[in-house]
């Protein structure tokens, strides 16, 4: 499974990239607005950091003509950019047109298998079902994700499933077990993937034992040195 960060923070993107684990990022207007930088500058800088991956940049228009205009503009900035459009009738119409022009589209705000079916048929490059937000409404996000994967496998759609709104390591692991193509997550969730309490306990134990061993070893070396000097 490819790992994307759901962020527009360049420091977070750089840190994840330094591990050699980052395959791309997803942004949205909310995340971009938090950074207080010109949007184009922010997206292009992200493209520089994620050189071999993709950067998802979202339109803000709600009508098809506006989405087409913004989508073409975003795609012209850098070859690594994938354009995000919302799962609305206007968004799907824009998807159909932009896909025909060779522009890669990520359809976001997907909350059902029925929606995912439509966008795959319309030619989406990515589909982004939102797991955490479904969980917030007492629906099981992982169940919806499983339904989408079943449909896509049955019809061999080329659309890649990008599991979004991943709230913790369990979401990430279960998505990976289903064979989801991509998981996108906040930086804090990415950091949590490294951690396990037994790793912390084991490391502390190793370091404690090493300190004991160094003390004994130091005494042996000191004693040996004194004896040698006295001969």
**What is the subunit arrangement here?**
single chain
Q: What is the average per-residue confidence, as pLDDT, rounded to a whole number?
A: 93
Query: What's the SSE pattern?
Result: EHEHHEHEHEHEHHEHEHH
The end-to-end span amounts to 65 Å
* Broad CATH class of the largest domain: Alpha Beta
User: In CATH, what is the homologous superfamily of the largest domain?
Assistant: Aldolase class I
Low confidence ranges:
227-231
* Rg value: 24 Å
The proportion of residues in beta strands is: 15-25%
Number of domains: 2
Shape: elongated
CATH architecture of the largest domain: Alpha-Beta Barrel
Describe the main β-sheet briefly: 8 strands, parallel, barrel
Could you say what the CATH topology of the largest domain is called? TIM Barrel
Helix segment count?
Answer: 11
Structural class designation: alpha/beta
Helix content, binned percent: 55-70%
Lateral arrangement of strands in the main beta sheet:
1-2-3-4-5-6-7-8
Question: Could you explain how this protein is built, in words?
Answer:
The chain has helices spanning 10-18, 29-34, 39-49, 64-77, 89-100, 113-122, 131-136, 141-155, 169-178, 187-192, 197-230, and strands spanning 2-6, 24-26, 54-58, 81-86, 105-110, 126-129, 160-163, 182-185. It is α/β, with parallel strands linked by helices and 231 residues long. An 8-stranded parallel β-barrel has the order 1-2-3-4-5-6-7-8, surrounded by 7 helices. 34% of the residues are buried. It starts with a strand and ends with a helix. The chain contains 11 helices and 8 strands. Helix 6 (113-122) links the parallel strand 5 (105-110) and strand 6. It folds into 2 domains: 2-192, Aldolase class I (TIM Barrel, Alpha-Beta Barrel), CATH 3.20.20; 196-231. 58% of the residues lie in helices and 16% in strands.
